[in-house]
Amino acid sequence: MSNAGSGYLSVGLMFVVTIILGLGLVWVNIERVDLAYELKTLDRELQEKQEQNSKLQVERHYLLAPATLRDRAEKAGLRPPRRDQIRTVQE
Question: Global pTM?
Answer without folding.
Answer: 0.58
